[in-house]
Amino acid sequence: MTELSKGPALPQERRVVTAIPGPKSQELAVRKQAAVAAGVGAVMPVFAARAGGGVLEDVDGNSFIDLGSGIAVTSVGNSAEAVVRRAAAQLELFTHTCVMVTPYEGYVEVCEELAKLTPGDHAKRSALFNSGAEAVENAVKIARSYTGRQAVVVFDHGYHGRTNLTMALTAKNMPYKQGFGPFAPEVYRVPVAYPFRWPTGPDNCAEEAAAQAIDQISKQVGAQNVAAIVIEPLLGEGGFIEPAKGFLPRIAEFARDNGIVFVADEIQSGFCRTGQWFACEDEGIVPDLITTAKGIAGGLPLAAVTGRAEIMDAVHSGGLGGTYGGNPVACAAALGAIETMRELDLNAKARRIEEIMKPRLEKMAQQHGVIGEVRGRGAMIAVELVKPGTKEPDSEATSAVARHCHQAGVLVLTTGTYGNVVRFLPPLVIGEDLLNEGLDVVEEALASLG
Ligand SMILES: *Cc1c(COP(=O)(O)O)cnc(C)c1O
After folding, report:
1. Fold entry, domain 83-343
2. Are the CB atoms for 424 and 379 separated by under 8 Å?
3. Which of 136, 162, 232, 267 to mutate to test the pocket of ligand 1 (most atoms within 8 A of CB)?
4. SS3 for 48?
5. Which of 17, 84, 329, 404 suits 157 as a labelling partner, its CA being 20 to 30 A distant?
């Protein structure tokens, strides 16, 4: 099985041999349009053929430098050796029993790993699901069951998924919520400490934002009614916003003082992405519950809620689950992904990626007024683009930079409430030469804005 792994065999190079998208991708796009719902969009409409290491090859033979990892999923690389080996072995044994019918060891082993890897040395339990949104929904169910309260507090620029409850938790209307209401009740949104856009500047941002958030919760909701506060320690779809230092500890303390379950949504920021197992470790936060997905299983669908035993166990037997949650093949893949993260020390790799990217992007920021800010940690780095000399978001320049990169063979993603953030989420196993070449193209794209 391992000999078949094409990861290392795939040439680690950028190669553009047709127009983007090429003729085969264009043919497939016609079929896609005729068969696939229009609501399922694509950032870069080339069709994938193979991927591994730091590249993605399309059906026309173009090879893209991958600075997106399928949105922070293939952190260990596509079809990583240990993921393929373990998932393939599991495929031969059994593909499904439903853990609620007949449990299996892999599910337990993933939960044991989650207990070891997540912050805090208290007793923990986990439950496994299929998607990030499902994990967030279940975290809310668990917090409500434990506290006997209903309200959920979320933050400006937050993203938590596309199901009915998680749409309500998500801040941004287009494209996630438009036309899909009514949304779930008992959801309250408060300010987040966004240093670049804080009205009085970054210096007092943490204290002011925390005071406003706490005041709104206390006065508008009543702390005694709040089951959970849900926050991304490093906000993903909102624009890779790092809350000003001090904000998260203050909110976590408020939650603790008021019997509110503090939920860290680490679906995008977790599993080595920021150079630590979880982004909340950066300020020593120990969440009551933590939601994970994306990077957890090397590309197979798996998600988890992990947290304090007394909170997790508050739910009655049979109250949590789902047909496929914690599928045995996905669990095997997760164990392979976690093995890879440990063996290759991918936290160190993520920090190295930051060391390479940040200085180069800072230098570009000095030359190009369109870059308002460079931010992020580890391999979760972004540039926020503005009209030079102002803080006015420039979403056109952002699209133009992404388009230029795509045409030149570099897969980048955009993000942000204002659509004006270019984000970089390279696989943690990307080669340094390839990463630097990708940044050369980003620089060309900025220069081409004129
Ligand atoms: C992607 C994401 C989700 C939703 O995960 P899905 O697997 O797409 O349902 C939730 N929270 C955060 C922070 C995310 O980045």
Report:
1. Aspartate Aminotransferase; domain 2 (3.40.640)
2. yes
3. 267
4. strand
5. 404
User: Which of the four pLDDT bands, split at 50, 70 and 90, describes residue 5?
Assistant: very low
User: Residue 277 Cα, ligand 1 centroid: separation in angstroms?
Assistant: 17
Tokens of 280: 């909340």
User: Does position 8 have pLDDT exceeding 90, yes or no?
Assistant: no
Nearest residue (CA) to ligand 1, atom 15 = 268
Question: Given a cut of 80, is residue 3 above it in pLDDT?
Answer: no
Q: How far apart are CA 283 and CA 188, in angstroms?
A: 25
- Atom 6 in ligand 1: which residue has the minimum CA distance? 132
Distance (Å, rounded) from C-alpha 149 to C-alpha 388? 47
Please give the structure tokens belonging to residue 22.
């090429």
Asked if the model's pLDDT at residue 7 lies above 90, the reply is: no
Instruction: Look at residue 1 in the predicted model and tell me its pLDDT.
Output: 34
Query: What is the arithmetic mean of pLDDT over 408-413?
Result: 98
Superfamily of domain 23-76+345-447: Aspartate Aminotransferase, domain 1 (3.90.1150.10)
